[in-house]
Known about the structure:
The protein is α/β, with parallel strands linked by helices. The protein is built from twelve helices and eight strands. It has an eight-stranded parallel beta barrel with strand order 1-2-3-4-5-6-7-8, surrounded by seven helices. It is globular, with a radius of gyration of 19 Å.
Amino acid sequence: MALEKEHSMTTRYTQAEWGTIINEAKKDIPSSFPEYKVPILGTPDFASCIDHTLLKLDANKDQIDELCGEARRHQFRFVCVRLTWVERAVHNLQGAGVVIACVVGFHEGTHSVSDKVKEASQAISTGASELDVVMNYPLLKQKRYSQVYTDVVAVRNVAPHPVVLKVILETAQLTQFDIIAGCKIAEAANADFVKTSTGFGGQGATVENVRLMKSVIGPHMKVKASGGVKNVNECVSMMEAGAERIGTSNGVWIMKEALALLENTTHAAGDHDGKNSRPSDSLTGMSSSS
Length: 290
């Protein structure tokens, strides 16, 4: 059941209404899932799907500077950091065309609404253009849907478009029903993305959860796969499942693998008929260890 955008910022549903929305979404899950197109590996289009990420609590300024330098060199379009480092990342990446994302309520998601709103406001004021907010998933598991919605929509209200809002579900802690519920709540709050994981709360992204999330969100939303995506094979698997962004601290390694595959495929094509082929086609049959 698609939620109308005009309701998303103004209407809170009753518990019964939430139940209807979630159950209808569950009924609509298809028995098979499409395979989505992946950008040619090693190209700027591929690099632009990666959110180059550093979220360790003990991160220091030198590591942030390195992260930003890597984003420039490898043409990552996005860098994701904690609030402490937003201003430095913005300064480092001036003129580079790199978008700064900041996590909010990270990583537990149980921060008060007022704390999340304050953190979001500070992130935007210091230069972040995207927010990755952790949903209060313990409340979600308790089916306290109106409280979860209020939590997310409060951040949306202080960070309206064009700020991009991604809602982290922490899928490893949730049942399939919880994941569906989280997606529909994020949709109702007018979020732009649903995101699998923080990377700090158990198993990260899985192909199965990415497919599920992609199948239940509305057409105006996207999926970000994050947590445990460590190599190009896993990255491609997540994209084929429907993820349009990949959040990872392994972006440099993934690009090295992708560029090597691009070079090998180009040489192989040249040996045959001089034509380039799409490297990701050769990865379609690979399995993901996510």
